[in-house]
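Annex B. Sample input.
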Amino acid sequence: MFRILESCCNRKMTGMDDGVRVRSIAREDLEEVGTMAGQLVRYHHSLDAHRFLLVDGVERGYARYFASQLEEPSTILLVAERAGKRVGYAYARLEPRNWNALLDEHGALHDIFVVPEERRRGVASLLLEEVAGRLAALGAPRIVLSTAVQNTAAQRLFERHGFHGTMLEMTREL
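Annex B, continued. Sample output.
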């Protein structure tokens, strides 16, 4: 099934920078993608250190976890490249029904990250649309994601791609 998804969904979007290529993550990408994932974790941790976990070696941990997911048919791991340089990644999964969250089967976008110098150049949109296409091909009826309340740029991106608010997570320290 994974090979079919490779051939049917890796497409170029019109109106976007066609110097960017989105493809499935390969083993040789894992270290650099782990570094980007660490940047994403550190960003969230800087917003709220009590809510967002940060552990030593987060980059290596992400690289190891993503390596374990490379052959999982329900996992989507993408990297965006410009001129041979990795400039972003996305991680999504087809998730089963979750009674605790009151969610039926769905696609979950867990991570999307673009290096700072490539932001607002269409890279995140390319990654997001590739994720959507692949999740649709896996049979996902919808995509669910979470974004930090303070990350208004990401919220605007998601809204431009048809997402709307459904829940607001709240925390209280004890």
